[in-house]
């Protein structure tokens, strides 16, 4: 097969169906940009989990004299020095505990003022209303329940809280948003496939006389199909290229410059350029294979070659 003939047929087909070709390119670009964005979002969530789960603490809040008046868990009164020593000793004896730090009422008050100093409630609080606490770093953050079962309900303990539970809610929200993006991507992908099939059908119908003559002179099925499949592949490749550009530009302007999230949200370890570049070959390969297969099956049915 002559490459020049195939290329000329591709150009003719793309020009004849310029509007539909443009629609295919835009649909493929949008769907694959969402696909790449969803993959990067999954990487981002995994990166954040690894970063934050390594820093989460389990907090054991101790009863103060105000809790003894209002909290059923502190009905036996504020925590005593002996109770605090026993809790600390038991924590050090637990093999899953990596590190234990103590936060006094004064320290808790300073931290609260630093974080919520503008809150109306902050002006009415006093250090003696704050709770002493032990902050525990676990060797395995998944073992929170071991600490909770050991200290919940103990005399002098108001509550045991796991920061991982707060992070889990955040990551569940991010995963939900990611699934929503995948759902939109799937719909756009279906639209793109339908447009590709219709474009191939229109192109095949407009050149039905040419393909009929080619069949009569003994042209093979692949020889007849190749220009149509190549047209879809070229349109898809252009769309995939635009999707790659969208991901690169999006990463550049949202994280590095423009919105500059990398500097504004330094607590978040954003995915790097290596993760973005690693997705580009997959997007380009999908942009070629998806339209080619759609065109191949559409031609089998409507050209019957």
TrEMBL record:
<protein>
    <recommendedName>
        <fullName>Cell division protein FtsX</fullName>
    </recommendedName>
</protein>
<feature type="transmembrane region" description="Helical">
    <location>
        <begin position="221"/>
        <end position="249"/>
    </location>
</feature>
<dbReference type="GO" id="GO:0051301">
    <property type="term" value="P:cell division"/>
</dbReference>
<feature type="domain" description="ABC3 transporter permease C-terminal">
    <location>
        <begin position="184"/>
        <end position="304"/>
    </location>
</feature>
<dbReference type="InterPro" id="IPR004513">
    <property type="entry name" value="FtsX"/>
</dbReference>
<feature type="transmembrane region" description="Helical">
    <location>
        <begin position="180"/>
        <end position="200"/>
    </location>
</feature>
<keyword id="KW-0472">Membrane</keyword>
<feature type="domain" description="FtsX extracellular">
    <location>
        <begin position="56"/>
        <end position="160"/>
    </location>
</feature>
<comment type="similarity">
    <text>Belongs to the ABC-4 integral membrane protein family. FtsX subfamily.</text>
</comment>
<keyword id="KW-0132">Cell division</keyword>
<dbReference type="Pfam" id="PF18075">
    <property type="entry name" value="FtsX_ECD"/>
</dbReference>
<dbReference type="GO" id="GO:0005886">
    <property type="term" value="C:plasma membrane"/>
</dbReference>
<keyword id="KW-1003">Cell membrane</keyword>
<dbReference type="InterPro" id="IPR047929">
    <property type="entry name" value="FtsX_actino"/>
</dbReference>
<keyword id="KW-0812">Transmembrane</keyword>
<dbReference type="Pfam" id="PF02687">
    <property type="entry name" value="FtsX"/>
</dbReference>
<keyword id="KW-1133">Transmembrane helix</keyword>
<feature type="transmembrane region" description="Helical">
    <location>
        <begin position="280"/>
        <end position="299"/>
    </location>
</feature>
<dbReference type="InterPro" id="IPR003838">
    <property type="entry name" value="ABC3_permease_C"/>
</dbReference>
<keyword id="KW-0131">Cell cycle</keyword>
<comment type="function">
    <text>Part of the ABC transporter FtsEX involved in cellular division.</text>
</comment>
<dbReference type="InterPro" id="IPR040690">
    <property type="entry name" value="FtsX_ECD"/>
</dbReference>
<feature type="transmembrane region" description="Helical">
    <location>
        <begin position="21"/>
        <end position="41"/>
    </location>
</feature>
<comment type="subunit">
    <text>Forms a membrane-associated complex with FtsE.</text>
</comment>
